[in-house]
Amino acid sequence: MILGIGVDVVHVGRIRHWESVPGLVERFFHRDEVADARRRGAGESLSLAARFAAKEAFGKALGTGLAGIRLGDIQVVNDPNGRPDMVLHGSALARFNAFGGSRVHVSLTHESDNAIAIAIIEG
């Protein structure tokens, strides 16, 4: 059963600005997300923007937003075929479990200046 659906869009310029502020990217992303994005070279900002949109979409799917959730506790990963998935840690996992979630489905897309994500929480 679907418990919640969230969608979000992030302007890539916002992430490019964050990349110019020391420590800001590391504050909002799991360390493995940062490492993966940096391996993408010129696609780094697009990758991070899509992941940040996924985090925001997750908060919307919960219906509570991200208050009380450490953003680094939400990790967006890709399987060997490139399919995105969400791994929850710490505060995000606790909120997800309290919500009654059993699985998160996530889809990402980006083009030029914008990244969009949808998160669906199944219970």
Strand content: 25-35%
Q: Helices and strands: which structural class?
A: alpha+beta
Give the count of helical stretches: 5
The succession of helices and strands, N to C, reads EHHHHEEHEE
Q: Would you tell me the overall average pLDDT?
A: 95
Which CATH class applies here? Alpha Beta
Spatial gap, N to C terminus: 5 Å
The number of domains is 1
CATH superfamily: 4'-phosphopantetheinyl transferase domain
Tally of DSSP β-strands:
5
Q: What characteristic shape results from the CA principal axes?
A: globular
- Main sheet properties: 3 strands, antiparallel
CATH architecture: Alpha-Beta Complex
User: pLDDT under 50 segments (min length 5)?
Assistant: none
Helix coverage percent: 40-55%
The value of Rg in angstroms is: 14 Å
Which strand order spans the largest sheet, edge to edge or round the barrel?
Answer: 1-5-4
Output the CATH topology: Ribosomal Protein L22, Chain A
Account of the 3D structure:
The chain is an alpha+beta fold and 123 residues long. It has a single domain, classed as 4'-phosphopantetheinyl transferase domain (Ribosomal Protein L22, Chain A), CATH 3.90.470.20. It has 5 helices and 5 strands, in the order E-H-H-H-H-E-E-H-E-E. Strands 1-5-4 form a 3-stranded antiparallel β-sheet. A hairpin with a 2-residue loop joins strand 4 and strand 5. Helix 1 crosses helix 4 (44-62) and helix 3 (31-39) packs antiparallel against helix 4 (44-62). The radius of gyration is 14 Å and the shape is globular.
